């Protein structure tokens, strides 16, 4: 029976329930996290993180003494992952406070404008602790989708952002003019006889 291993590492990717089960089985067989990462085609940091999340302290008796050890359970990791996914949600616009939207619109249209989107969200959270406030990223999503009175053009920094590209240094070689582009000049060719010379007009060879 042949086993195919992937050599492509993926850093911090979500694992499936089957992959978590394989991790538990590999650990029970004494396989190290680095080898598990190689077999699953994942980054070693991803495997280590999953092991730490699913490790539960167990106790057993050895020669009448209690020995504590860590055991990784795939079910524990999967349940924690599922609960985290259920707890995370995209804040709908109708759940946002009307007072927040009004103050945000006024602050963005104020001239001269004092707050950016980020600073306004931070300041509003400090003043209204009990109010659910959308994140800066969520507000930008609202703006780019045209869900608010504020448009992208009202945010100079959002319009001004450009993707930066790294330029490779280019060294230009200056070789000078070619022979054909050089000006013509006379070349005096000496001869064997003393006091005599032949003057030749033409291109330099």
UniProtKB/TrEMBL annotation:
Domain Transposase IS30-like HTH: 12-52
Tree of life domain: Bacteria
InterPro entries in the cross-refs: IS30-like_HTH (IPR025246)
Protein name from the UniProt record: Transposase IS30-like HTH domain-containing protein
Organism lineage: Bacteria, Bacillati, Bacillota, Bacilli, Lactobacillales
